[in-house]
Amino acid sequence: MSLPIVEMLAAEKTFPGGVQALAPVELSVRPGELIGLIGPSGCGKSTLLKLIANLHTPSAGEMRWWGEDFTRVGEAGRRLSFVFQDPTLMPWADVATNVRLPLDLDGIPRDEARARVAPALAQVGLSHAADRTPAQLSGGMRMRVSIARALVTRPDLLLMDEPFAALDEFTRNRLDEDMALLCAQGGLTTIFVTHSLTEAAFLSTRVLVMAPDPGRIHAEYAIDPTIVRDEAFRLSAEFAAICRDLSALLNEVSHARAAADA
Ligand SMILES: Nc1ncnc2c1ncn2[C@@H]1O[C@H](COP(=O)(O)OP(=O)(O)OP(=O)(O)O)[C@@H](O)[C@H]1O
Ligand SMILES: [Mg+2]
C-alpha cells in the first residue's frame, strides 16, 4: 500500500478556554482519495481541516506528512492548497493574474508562472476568461478561478471548506461533476467539508461522518472509487442507496446530540 499523504495520530484540539473542538482523531489520507467530511455545525470539520493545513497546531497527538512529522517537514515541504467558500479574488486584477498569485508569492520567474496559469485555467474550463476581472464573472466562475489558483501550485493535497455552499444547485452540480473529473483524471487528492449529504455522496470515495461534543469521527463510509461520477450516477439507484445510508448515519449523530441536550 502506498504511503499516506497525511496522517493524524491521536491528534486532538482543545482551544484556549477549554473548548475541546476535536477528541483524538486517527486518520490516514491515501493518494487519490476524495474524502468528504459531514456532520452537524460545531462538530470540528473546519478544525480538522485547519490541523491538516497547519493553521492550527494539535494540543496533543501527531500530524505526519508523507510519513514525517509536520515540524520536521516544514511549511515549504507540505504542498497543499486550501479553497474557502469565499473565493477572495483581487478585484482589480484579471483572472490570469489572480491565478498566478501563489506563484508570484513563491518567487517563481514570471515567464514560468505565466506558462503554468494557462493549463490551470484549462483544467477548470476558464481558458476563455483569462482577461476578465472578477466583477465580470458569475459566482460559479469566481469559484473556478479560486480552484485554478489552488491547482496552479500542483499541490499533493487540496482542502476545501464548504466550497460551493453559496452557489445555486445547478452551478454546484456542474462544479461537482467537474471536480470529480479533475480528481479522477489528475489523481488529485482532496478533502472537502460540505453540509450537503448529496454532494458528499456524489463526490467522495470515503465519507467521514463527524459527531459533536467533543468533535470526533463517528463513522466512515467507503464509496467505490471506480464509479464514474456523472449525471447517470446522480440518477442511479446506487446513488440513492448511498444517500440513504449517509442520512441514517447523520441521524445517529443528531439523535445522540438530541439525547444529550434533553
Ligand atoms: N479559534 C477558536 N477558538 C475557540 N473555539 C473554537 C475556535 N474555532 C472553533 N472553535 C470551536 O470548536 C468547535 C468546532 O468548530 P468548527 O469550526 O471546527 O466546527 P464545524 O464543524 O466546522 O462547524 P460549521 O459546520 O458550523 O462550520 C466549536 O465548538 C467552535 O465553537
Ligand atoms: Mg466549519
UniProtKB/TrEMBL annotation:
Family: Belongs to the ABC transporter superfamily.
Pfam family, one: ABC_tran
Annotated keywords: ATP-binding, Nucleotide-binding, Transport
PROSITE patterns tied to this protein: ABC_TRANSPORTER_1 (PS00211), ABC_TRANSPORTER_2 (PS50893)
Keyword Nucleotide-binding part of the UniProt annotation: yes
InterPro entries: AAA+_ATPase, ABC_transporter-like_ATP-bd, ABC_transporter-like_CS, ABC_transporter_ATP-bind, P-loop_NTPase
Domain ABC transporter: 6-239
Naturally occurring in which organism (per UniProt): Endobacter medicaginis
Keyword set includes DNA-binding: no
Domain of life: Bacteria
Protein's UniProt name: ABC transporter ATP-binding protein
GO molecular function: ATP binding; ATP hydrolysis activity
